[in-house]
Amino acid sequence: MIKNTGHRKLGKTSSHRKAMLNNMATSIILHEEVKTTLQKAKEVRRVVEGLITLAKANNVTAAKDTLKDAAACKKLFEVLAARYANRPGGFCRIYRAGLRQGDNAEVAIIKLVD
């Protein structure tokens, strides 16, 4: 009997999935908005919200394991941690953006809230 694994596999190996989600999290932190499929957006939201929580707690070492980009790390700790200091959670918002023309996949825009 298969139980809930706790995450979506997204049709990728674990190393590919981890690298993809880390890269998407870096893009969201740098650009504050990314357009992707709905399932990937729901999965990367978990990563981004965890990173912002780490930044609020000033845990540099754990955040640098996920973010390999120095500019993203700097923005996370200097800008985003201060912006969300009084917010208990819910740092990302997902908007549905229709269907992709090529394969009819559901597309979403994931943004950081203001």
Protein architecture, described:
51% of the residues lie in helices and 18% in strands. The protein has 114 residues and is of the alpha+beta class. The chain has a single domain, classed as 50s Ribosomal Protein L17, Chain: A, CATH 3.90.1030. A three-stranded antiparallel β-sheet has the order 1-3-2. Helix 1 crosses helix 2, helix 1 packs across helix 4 and helix 2 packs across helix 4. The termini are far apart.
Characterize the overall form: globular
Determine and state the CATH class. Answer: Alpha Beta
Give the DSSP E fraction (strand runs of 2 or more residues): 15-25%
Helix content class:
40-55%
| Terminal CA distance | 43 Å
According to DSSP, the number of beta strands is: 3
CATH architecture verdict? Alpha-Beta Complex
Instruction: Figure out the total of helices.
Output: 4
Q: What is the CATH fold-level name?
A: 50s Ribosomal Protein L17, Chain: A
Low-confidence stretches: none
**Main sheet attributes: strand count, strand direction, barrel closure:** 3 strands, antiparallel
Annotated CATH homologous superfamily = Ribosomal protein L17
Order the strands across the largest sheet as they lie in space: 1-3-2
Helix-and-strand structural type = alpha+beta
Features:
114 residues; 4 helices; alpha+beta; 50s Ribosomal Protein L17, Chain: A; three-stranded antiparallel beta sheet
What does the secondary structure layout of this molecule look like, with pairings?
Layout: H1 14-31, E1 33-37, H2 38-56, H3 60-66, H4 70-83, E2 92-99, E3 106-112
Tell me briefly what this model is:
With 114 residues, the chain is an alpha+beta fold. Helix content is 51%, strand content 18%.
